[in-house]
Amino acid sequence: MGFYDLEKEKRKEVVALVSAAIRSGIENKKSNAFIKYFSDEDTYIRKAAYLATGKIFNEQKKLQAEILDQLKQLSVHENERIRQTVINAAGEIGKFDFGAVALFMEKGLFDEHHSVRNAVIGSIKKMGEKNPKPVLEFAARYLDHPDKEIRREICHGIELRGRIHPQDILPLLKQLEFDTTARVKNTLIHVIGQISYKKGCLETVISHLKNWKNKDLVVKAFEEIIDVHDRYKDFAELTTDQATKYIEEHFK
């Protein structure tokens, strides 16, 4: 039976059980609980495990070294679910202490399994939202990486910070304006659209795009911005017509 097939109270019991097992494993320097729950087929059990790990790390300084040591050992485990969950646990830690987990992110970017690499993207998103300075500095180092998938993953990873603070990521996005790889270019355009529709964001995005030299890409970005305002009309600050008019008036 899956996690969300359980009644609400039973789910709370399962989360408490997972958390207690993870904590006990850390205190007793045994990785059994990590291996059991980090490898679970149910994504929500794995989530309960990595959230518990992050919470224990942030609440118990005396256990931090042991947590990092166990995560380091499991980061090379043959099971990709375990490696994926290690990255997600590191992402929880990195929301407050990125320096402690930077090496996990570097390693995960080059993992052979897509689920682990995707966990890096998700972790960069949540860390960048809460702890932007070191995370964006880390991301900037990989925007000119020769591997197109690394560039694409980093571009995607910094999106969430940009949804509220587009000014923080626009200089990084600009580094990709002449990227010739279709997957990178499409992700770049997608991210520009995603950081444009909340209050005050369109103005910031349009102002920055005025300084971009790749006008063909900018035009495609405008099309995406307008489309996003239509798709997210229930959440966007401006209507599609208002967004279109703003672009026409402010970008000559």
Q: Layout of helices and strands, plus pairs?
A:
Layout lengths: L7 H20 L4 H7 L4 H17 L4 H11 L5 H15 L7 H8 L4 H17 L1 H9 L7 H10 L1 H6 L1 H9 L7 H13 L6 H9 L5 H17 L8 H11 L2
Helix pairs in contact: 1-2, 1-3, 2-5, 3-5, 4-5, 5-6, 5-7, 7-8, 7-9, 9-12, 11-13, 12-14, 13-15, 14-15
- For the termini, the CA-CA separation is 58 Å
The helix fraction, in percent, is: over 70%
Count of helix runs? 15
Q: What is the CA-based Rg, rounded?
A: 20 Å
Give a short account of the largest sheet.
none
| Class per helix and strand makeup | mainly alpha
SSE run: HHHHHHHHHHHHHHH
**How would you describe the shape?**
elongated
Mean pLDDT, all residues? 94
Q: Estimate the strand proportion.
A: under 5%
Number of strands: 0
Low-confidence blocks of residues: none
Please characterize this protein's 3D structure.
This protein is an all-alpha fold. The chain is built from 15 helices and no strands. The longest helix has 20 residues. The mean pLDDT is 94.
